[in-house]
Write a structure and sequence with these properties.
The chain has 190 residues and is an alpha/beta fold. 42% of the residues lie in helices and 21% in strands.
Length: 190
Amino acid sequence: MKTRPILGLLTASLLIAAGLHAAEPAQTKTMLVLDASGSMWGQIGGKTKIAIAREAVDSMLDGWNGGDLGLIAYGHRRKGDCADIEVMVPPAPGTSGQVLKAVNEMRFLGMTPLSDAVRQAAEALRYSEQAATVVLVTDGLETCAADPCAVATELEKSGVNFTAHVIGFGLSKEQGSKVACLAENTGGRY
């Protein structure tokens, strides 16, 4: 598989998620949740997944509509720590430069606590009080004994117009179905 088609697909997915955000009410805030686990050192077509993800985020931010945007990363500080989740850029208008800088400086080395990261993103967006959108970019499955499908159902039930979009890359169809429920259970896209 060549890098260009994967990058194009990932970029298109991020832009679709950004476009979906633009079509939602103006008060919607968006949090990008980036997988910074050790598996991102893997390669697709001779290029690291890290590089592919960074380029895709850069492309997404070029077309960002100016709405509130934040960034959460997981697995970027410590190996083997399921609590390694951090709000790197709080959601606010005009943060795309900060988001890109944080993504470009990020280290990739830990676990994949994607369920808790999505939950923390929703909480940072005050999803139970206002419309909120989470865009998860991941190359792997949950590795921290949580159920992404249950988390999605819980967030959808208790949120005010909560939506999660999942951009999974380098995943098999079977693997993808294990994270697609985050989107499917909240009215988002996988």
